[in-house]
Amino acid sequence: MKYKAEYNWSSIDTSYQTASGSNKYGLYDMVGNVWEWCNDWYERNYYTGRPNPDVNPAGPPGPLMWRVFRGGAWNTYAVDCRIAFRGYDWAVYHFLNIGFRAVLDF
Fold first, then answer.
1. Is the pTM of this model over 0.70?
2. How many CB atoms lie within 10 A of CB 34?
């Protein structure tokens, strides 16, 4: 979600999403509902100095202490509701604003 106050666009709307609600991959609701656990382990400097940061790396080998979560939640600031924002916590942590997404490969 993008907010008018952050981008100063001229519109009566206070927030913006695509007309269909999907992102450029055709996926819906990827951010802002609950933080979503990822399969990646968290290592603070893992992305530093990577030759191509646009490619989705598999993450550091585990098990490590923390797991990655992404996407923001209903109770977080809009700036955190981005797939690129990477949070982390204990792999066994659970709370009402953290979940996971079930996927089916066709």
1. no
2. 20
Task: State how many domains the chain has.
Answer: 1
DSSP state at residue 84: T
H/E run at residue 98: strand 98-99
Q: Is residue 88 one of the residues assigned to a domain?
A: yes
How far is it, in rounded angstroms, from Cα 35 to Cα 86? 10
What angle (nearest 5°) sits at the alpha carbon of residue 106, between those of residues 53 and 70?
A: 35
**Residue 13 located in a structural domain:** no
Buried b (16+ CB within 10 A) or exposed e, 69-102: bbbbbeebeeeebeeebebbbeeeeeeeebbeee
**pLDDT per position as a tens digit, 50-62:** 666 666 677 788 8
Give residue 38's identity as a one-letter amino acid code: C
At 84, list the tokens: 């690129």
